[in-house]
Amino acid sequence: MKLGAMLGDVIRSLFKTPITEYYPYQKKAAPQRLRGKLLWNRESCTGCGLCAKDCPAGALDVIVIDKKAKKIVMNYDADHCIYCGQCVVTCRQSSLSMPSTDWELAALSRGGLSMHYGDEADVKAVLAGLLKDGAAPADGG
Q1: What's the rounded Cα separation, in Å, for the pair 67 and 122?
Q2: Cβ contacts of residue 65 below 8 Å, gap of 6+?
Q3: What digits encode the pLDDT tens for the residues 21-49?
Q4: How far is CA 90 from CA 38, 53, 97, 100, in A?
Q5: Which own/partner contact pairs does 123-128 have at CB distance under 8 Å and 24+ positions apart?
Q6: Residue 18: strand, helix, or coil
Q7: Which pTM does this prediction carry?
Q8: pLDDT tens digits, residue range 81-114?
Q9: CB contact at 8 A, 121 and 73
Q10: Other C-beta atoms within 10 Å of 82: how many?
């Protein structure tokens, strides 16, 4: 590059406004096709577990406590998820979705990236059962 051309670029840049984005304070809309955090609809889920079987990253775990009473718990590890959307495509009941609205998933520890969907009492029972069997808890702590 010639010195004259470079100086011309420098002088033009002096009179332009910066392109800096003030991200936390001014948020832009996410693209429509962006896959965000996995959401689960408990009412339409039958507990078949196809989503967990088809997940290439092993980020899902479906635990059926009582199929008749629809007591189902789903563990979702966002730190394992590769956001491919295969679980959403596989679900026959359309119980899973990955909306583009919830995509800011940063956390200070890995525990904040493990989500347990289901009735609160059922989730506590499943986590207590995992601890009693001697296995590590699902949230890593």
Answers
A1: 13
A2: 71, 72, 73, 122, 125, 126
A3: 888 888 888 888 999 999 999 999 999 99
A4: 14, 10, 11, 19
A5: 123/73, 125/65, 126/63, 126/65, 126/73
A6: coil
A7: 0.71
A8: 999 999 999 999 999 999 988 888 888 888 888 8
A9: no
A10: 11
For tokens 């495509």, the residue is: 89
Domain ranges for the chain: 30-132
* Rounded distance between C-alpha atoms, residue 60 and residue 53, angstroms: 8
Query: Which strand (E) or helix (H) includes residue 63?
Result: strand 60-66
DSSP string for 67-108: TTTTEEEEEEETTT-----HHHHH-TT--EE--TT------S
**Distance between CA 44 and CA 26 in Å, rounded?**
36
With the CA atoms of 135, 137, 138 and 141 taken in that order, what torsion angle do they form, in degrees rounded to the nearest 10? -140
DSSP state of 126: H
User: Tokens 């026959």 — which residue?
Assistant: 92
Q: Is CATH 3.40.50.720 the right assignment for the domain spanning 30-132?
A: no
